[in-house]
Amino acid sequence: MGLLDKIKKSIELKHPSPSISLIEKTENRILELTKKSELDPNDSKILLELYACYVETSNSEKKIECLEKLSFLTPGDFYPLQQLADVYLNELDDNVKAKFYQNKANNIKNNF
């Protein structure tokens, strides 16, 4: 195990697990926001809130889904693309997709 792996493991061990009540509250919020999103699929604020809930529940697949929709709805915003790069790099270990999304985010930043 390399030094970075040891540091990462140390940080992971110190991060407290969420309580069951917090998880239930977040999952109820996800249900509520999902219904709102179905009624108004172009509301980026709802999608951003959903994304935050999926961050809390560590649901990579749903985070990606929200971020892809956000990047489509807000093409001038680099944040969803930057977060997609982060998910692919740090959670899914997919350097190719991470680089793809990072380059797209950088293009937006540079053209701003």
Automatic annotation (TrEMBL):
SUPFAM superfamilies: TPR-like. It comes from the Archaea. InterPro entries: TPR-like_helical_dom_sf. Gene3D superfamilies: Tetratricopeptide repeat domain (1.25.40.10). This is Tetratricopeptide repeat protein.
